[in-house]
């Protein structure tokens, strides 16, 4: 049977909103990681059958099928196609799923999966502000009469449901920054980050959102976002960011013929729908489903990447699954590194497979919540450990 393996994975440094990547067009940011990906692998661009690219805010500079535009901006042959998909925050994790499915089915020999988001240049929610109507139709409003679709409200609901105090959320967020800072100091991201050349010719090379000087006291001084007695603050939520990531995928047999050593193979992939009001609890049933389909248990997994959309998302997942926090987001997460929506899934995969290789971990699991009450979950297996 054909399988799907990842032979190379790269990402840009993650820029803060209005930070180091603010002047970089998202098409050019995408082209940067695409070019670096194939350069590292030594693959000719014309061999790529398709580029499957995640992007959430598909308006303005990110409209018009940014995947295809990124291919053209990369200077790749015009024969290389590209398609852009949107599954909210899980867009580029879904891109990995689609690319894997195309490879396993024989539709692709070589594919690139990834994604991008410039939240500076295309602010979150831009597609809802262009004056073309409400995406929630009358039928949806009737079904959920009187209900507010609000991710921050969902994060508050999870915190209450799983008895996660404001202190716990802030303590977790502080650990995210500390872990990310330690990862930088230890050179753990050096193998995955590719520098971005800015319009002025300088290089942007480091994740910009890590706050080394933050403390629990500083986090505790931030006001709640919604209610006066709320628990969710800007400090225990993911950062608005700019970034891109890309993965080179093919069958294991093709990798062997090309003399390439895979980082990991896609073992099992799933996506699930859940309550769209709470919205953020999907990673819990998604994890259960992907483990069941893989024939594995939580104890088989050596590393987890659970997207830190909010600290309460990870906290709820930890409480529901019983997983050890030591194995979850051990290099920091979106609270410290940032959450460039359409690029985050591929960023998490990139970090996870490099971490698995560095630590000799056989199985890694990635999951993330998504708008509308969905969640992707993926199990990767180290090829060397098979």
TrEMBL record:
UniProt xrefs under Pfam families: Thiolase_C, Thiolase_N
EC number: 2.3.1.-
Domain Thiolase C-terminal stretches: 260-381
InterPro entries recorded: Thiolase, Thiolase-like, Thiolase_C, Thiolase_CS, Thiolase_N
GO molecular function, one term: acyltransferase activity
Keyword Transport found: no
Keywords, in A-Z order: Acyltransferase, Transferase
PROSITE patterns, alphabetized: THIOLASE_2
UniProt-recorded name of the protein: Thiolase family protein
Species name: Rhodococcus indonesiensis
């Amino acid at each position: 049977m054909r399988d799907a393996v990842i032979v190379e994975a790269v990402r840009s440094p993650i820029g803060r909103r209005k930070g180091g990547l603010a002047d970089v067009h998202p098409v050019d940011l995408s082209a940067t990681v695409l070019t670096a990906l194939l350069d590292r692998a030594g693959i000719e661009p014309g061999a790529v059958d398709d580029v499957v690219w995640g992007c959430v805010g598909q308006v303005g500079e990110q409209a018009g099928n940014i995947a295809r535009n990124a291919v053209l901006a990369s200077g790749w042959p015009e024969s290389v196609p590209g398609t852009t998909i949107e599954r909210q925050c899980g867009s580029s994790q879904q891109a990995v799923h689609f690319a894997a499915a195309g490879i396993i089915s024989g539709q692709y020999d070589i594919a690139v999966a990834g994604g991008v988001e410039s939240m500076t240049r295309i602010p979150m929610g831009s597609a809802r502000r262009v004056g073309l109507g409400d995406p929630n139709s009358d039928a949806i409003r009737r079904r959920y009469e009187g209900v507010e679709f609000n991710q921050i409200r969902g994060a508050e609901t999870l915190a209450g449901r799983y008895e996660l105090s404001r202190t716990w959320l802030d303590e977790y967020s502080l650990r995210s920054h500390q872990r990310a800072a330690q990862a930088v100091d230890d050179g753990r991201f050096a193998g995955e980050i590719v520098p971005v050349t800015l319009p002025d010719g300088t290089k942007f090379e480091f994740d910009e959102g890590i706050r080394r000087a933050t403390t629990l006291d500083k986090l505790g001084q931030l006001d709640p976002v919604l209610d006066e007695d709320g628990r969710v603050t800007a400090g225990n939520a993911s950062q608005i960011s700019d970034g891109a990531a890309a993965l080179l995928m093919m069958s294991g047999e093709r990798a062997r013929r090309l003399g390439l050593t895979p980082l990991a193979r896609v073992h099992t992939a799933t996506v699930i729908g859940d309550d769209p009001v709470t919205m953020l609890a999907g990673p819990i049933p998604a994890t259960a489903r992907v483990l069941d389909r893989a024939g594995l248990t939580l104890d088989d997994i050596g590393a987890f990447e659970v997207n830190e959309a909010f600290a309460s998302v990870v906290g709820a997942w930890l409480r529901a699954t019983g997983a050890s926090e030591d194995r979850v987001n051990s290099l920091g997460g979106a609270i410290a590194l940032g959450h460039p929506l359409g690029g985050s899934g591929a960023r998490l995969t990139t970090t996870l497979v490099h971490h698995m290789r560095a630590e000799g971990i056989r199985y890694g699991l990635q999951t993330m919540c998504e708008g509308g009450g969905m969640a992707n979950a993926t199990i990767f297996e180290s090829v060397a450990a098979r």
